[in-house]
Amino acid sequence: DLERAAHHELAYIPSFNTIIIINVVSPTNQVQTRFKKEMQKYTQADILKRIPPLNRVSDVMWTVWSTVSKSPNSLRYIGIDQVTNSDTLGIMKTIFEKGEAKGPVKWPGLKFGLDTEEGQALLATPSGLAIAWLMIDRAGKLGKRIPTVSIYSVYPEMGGYYRMLWDLQPSSPTSAAPPATPRPTSRSKIAAQTKRSGRRSLRVLHKRVLDYETAKCKGKALYNNINAAFQGKASLGSVYEFSAQSLENGWRYEDEVEELDDTWNEALKMISRTLRIGDRLPTEAESLPEERTGGFYDVAYIPSFLTIVATDTQSPRNQLIFNSRGDITEAEIQRRLPPLHRLSDVIWAIWNINSRSPNDLRYIGRSNVLDEGAVAIMGRFFDDRGGITGWPGYTYGIDTEEGQALLATPNGVAIAWLLIDRAGRLGRRRPKVTIWSAFPDAGKGFHMLWDLEPI
Questions:
Q1: Residue 413 Cα to chain centre, angstroms
Q2: pLDDT tens-digit profile of 72-100?
Q3: Helix %, strand %, coil % for the chain, to 5?
Q4: Would you say 355 and 425 are in contact if contact means Cβ atoms under 8 Å apart?
Q5: What are the two backbone dihedrals, phi and then psi, of residue 12, each rounded to the nearest 5 degrees?
Q6: Nearest-angstrom CA–CA distance, 328 and 6
Q7: Residues 378 and 446: beta-carbon distance below 8 Å
Q8: Which of 189, 222, 286, 448 has a Cα at 20 to 30 A from 232?
Q9: How far apart are CA 190 and CA 350, in angstroms?
């Protein structure tokens, strides 16, 4: 249920008077998404009927802080663990480029007051608005503050993983202040600190971002495995066989029409049909809600162009880790995973039951790449070639360093395992990948299209 998928994940560190916003999917956005997905017209009144009373980030922050802190007005620092909003990223990038370094910088980053042009631009972002409404709505409790905001990058050499830290400095010496300015730290360090001190975090889950050097090494290994599979020397991973009949064993399978953005129409010359393989549905004997993973794959297939495009994916494995806040063993993950859980198998399954000749599959696309490591790597390649561009973009073979780095991204790994597991059916291929942006001027909407050219 899209409405129930809304969540606010915050880490709080009372000893430093700090809250870190980890991840936010607002109820309002989720309700709007559902209306759009169901192609329904809606008004603001319709949205208000469906959202809970506690729905704004500013109110959630205050509620959490008031609940866990003995002195709610002591709240001083609010951090944004990872900025993902595309407009905010564009603003931060512009500010970084105006700085002395002419690009992203590490902590302590760049600092601005709200009386500056940069500070006011950051205040108008979704994260900044939450800070603004917190100070407006809770002025009586917080007192007068002199806010400043620091922005920095965890990986400035890759131009990615941007963070914010808002300092709500009290304007009088009598107001509460922390013992020292906290240095923002990684999720894993926050987890260690909260565990040692007996505190707890609403969500602290460390996810390592794929860096370029690691991607090159991982991609080269996958490239070698693909070649070994083509030569009949490798049989690795899952070879899960899927049929329409197996849908009866606990999988939701939905059929709908969805329009891809104009650049896909330009690339493929037509609008696609989308299939969803959804979460495992409990049977009467297995009706516990926790048996559902929440994973799903939305895949658009276009048989006349021998093409599949992954439009939205949440793997069952990642959802189990996400829902448990990382507190789950590998054995428990394996117990609860449905047999069909990898993207490579889902692509093959959908193609098999919708195509008369499964080995004809030629093109596999990924619409709107979101993985931060993949986005950073794609951004690096765009910069190397003169900037972000629209279709037809830039193309790389997997025998190149760039192609192998892209092969190591989550979507590339799915392509690699598809070629390895199904080498006997697909035959030898000469894969290459094209990357481009749907909105190059805004620097967002990155897409991939893999061409599995037969040899």
A1: 16
A2: 788 999 999 888 877 888 889 889 988 88
A3: 40, 25, 35
A4: no
A5: -120, 140
A6: 22
A7: yes
A8: 448
A9: 41
